[in-house]
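Objective 1b. Sequence-to-structure analysis of Catechol 2,3-dioxygenase.
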Amino acid sequence: MTVPARVRPAVAGFHHLAITATDLDASVAWYQRVLGLQPLPMTFPHNGAEESGHAVLLLEPAQGWAIGIHRHVANPGTPASETTTGLDHIAWAVSSREDLDAWASWLDEQGVQHAGVTDTTDPMPYSVLVFRDPDNVQLELVHLPG
């Protein structure tokens, strides 16, 4: 018998998120080049459905979080869309507004299209830089002024 928790159990931190790619190798290379993520030297099977594909886990070396890039045999190759059920976007915080400008320059150097840095006050003050991965997953870098 499970006893109901009176307090939410603890979470130690963010570990990883996983996305499905149409071209596993191209996506792994893109996340390495653009975000500096480092792949682990093994692949991960889809436990209980090993024949359906596998994943590569890429680690962010300074902070320890990861992105899993999955290959599914049944993937029809449809680009990701935030307008359908599932992942809408992924966002990371940056320390300053100037960091967003530096990221925009970095993305330009990497040949990654982006929307430029947007500063807004509605519904609250923040700045954001929006770009997309090879499968059209929306990625954001966000600065909230102190």
